[in-house]
Design brief:
alpha/beta; Rossmann fold; 3 domains; six-stranded mixed β-sheet; five-stranded parallel β-sheet; 12 helices; 15 strands; about 35% helix
Length: about 400
């Protein structure tokens, strides 16, 4: 029996699926982005996803590292008035404008290119993301070779025996990038946490200072660094010894761990910084030929009673402090520089006021950058520093002499 046909078609035969008219019209109207615009966009983004916090490298596979193109180009203002953030007048004008295009990975492209996310990712936010990313790339590639710096991570057991975690290479790069870029892929390291002596052994600091000096010498011989970016988590006497060993002949940038322990970046600008105060002894004490006490109160206050327990005889006391000592009150390199300047001038004056043989008993409650600076700018003609350390037994103990 012959099969029925209608207009030359078999009855019951399935018609080819029809494309959604709206979707077909949308795809047909998508403008072709010129090759030179795509090339410029890749260059401005440095081949990385421009979505804030992503930075995915788009020229290679994330797992196999094979060279492939994984990029998507999204419109901030859609090329269609009906698309995400679309506009009847601006959409056609900005369709191939490089300022309206973002280089993105596939996942981030989905966030930007779907209308249901428009309220979460408005035009103003995407424009800012693009600007921040491209400005960062421009600044990074504009750096001259003299901006290279060897990142140095220094660690020791803390006085309570705890072992601090080092910064990750990513944290190091993020902290440095505004001013420097790393001279090596991995930071240089002086790690004293493998020392066999127990942290509370009376000889620990003496042995640690010697080992610190040996390792710094090795790094100098191997790398000959012209500039160092220092990330340090160690006991205060060892931080002062590190500063003394590094000296001021090589440029140095100092960083500190944030209060939330998530990054090592300095704040862009301090919010109402605490004033730095210098309190000197009474005039009669100031002219005596004797040792003196130097209290440095930044991370916390230091009581006169605790010092009297460590030093039998009363000595003229100088105090350098912030208005309200506490953890995290130092949040900028400017504050570190102010402290360094005040202490430097004070150490220069003490021999004139108290005799050339005067020694300075230092009681430091300070963050790592200030401790390092204290040792770094100690001159040969300055008085000897007897550095005390606060112990878990809640008492000060003489740790070393600088």
């Amino acid at each position: 029996m012959a099969k029925s046909r209608t207009n030359g078609k078999r009855v019951g035969a399935k018609s080819p699926p029809k494309k959604d008219a709206k979707e077909a019209k949308k795809k047909a109207s998508r403008p072709k982005i010129p090759a030179d615009v795509i090339l410029q966009l890749w260059a401005r983004a440095a081949g990385q996803c421009e979505f804030e916090g992503c930075g995915e490298k788009l020229w290679r596979h994330g797992l196999t590292l094979e060279n492939i193109n994984r990029s998507n180009i999204a419109h901030i203002v859609s090329f269609s008035k009906d698309g995400p953030r679309g506009d009847e007048v601006r959409s056609p004008l900005l369709a191939t404008d490089i300022g309206n295009l973002m280089l993105l990975c596939r996942d981030c492209h989905d966030l930007v290119d779907k209308k249901k996310y428009v309220a979460k990712y408005p035009e103003e936010l995407l424009v800012e993301m693009k600007k921040v990313h491209e400005d960062r790339i421009d600044k990074a590639i504009s750096m001259i070779p003299s901006k290279k710096s060897h990142a140095l991570v220094f660690r020791s057991h803390m006085v309570n025996g705890a072992v601090p975690n080092p910064p990750t290479p990513t944290q190091v790069q993020e902290a440095m990038w505004l001013n420097r870029f790393p001279a090596t892929d991995q930071p240089l390291e002086v790690n004293l946490t493998a020392m066999t002596l127990h942290p509370r052994d009376p000889e620990y600091i003496e042995h640690a200072v010697k080992e610190l000096g040996r390792r710094v010498n090795q790094l100098r011989e191997t790398y000959d660094p012209q500039h160092l970016s220092v990330f340090a988590l160690a006991r205060i006497p060892l931080l002062i010894a590190l500063g003394r060993k590094l000296g001021d002949k090589v440029g140095l940038d100092l960083y500190q761990l944030s209060n939330d322990k998530r990054h090592w970046r300095w704040e862009d600008g301090d919010r109402n910084p605490e004033p730095i105060l210098l309190k000197e002894p009474e005039h009669d004490d100031a002219d005596a030929e004797t040792d003196v006490v130097l209290k440095i109160e930044v991370s916390g206050p230091i009581s006169a009673r605790s010092i009297r327990k460590a030093i039998a005889e009363p000595l003229p006391t100088y105090t350098v402090k912030v208005g309200r000592p506490g953890i995290g009150v130092i949040s900028s390199t400017d504050q570190v520089a102010q402290f360094s300047s005040i202490i430097l001038n004070l150490l220069n004056r003490i021999p004139q006021l108290h005799g050339e043989n005067a020694r300075v008993h230092v009681f430091p409650a300070v963050p790592p950058p200030i401790a390092i600076e204290l040792g770094r700018y100690h001159r040969t003609h300055f008085p000897s520093l007897l550095v005390y350390e606060w112990l878990p037994s809640e008492m000060w103990s003489l740790a070393c002499e600088v």
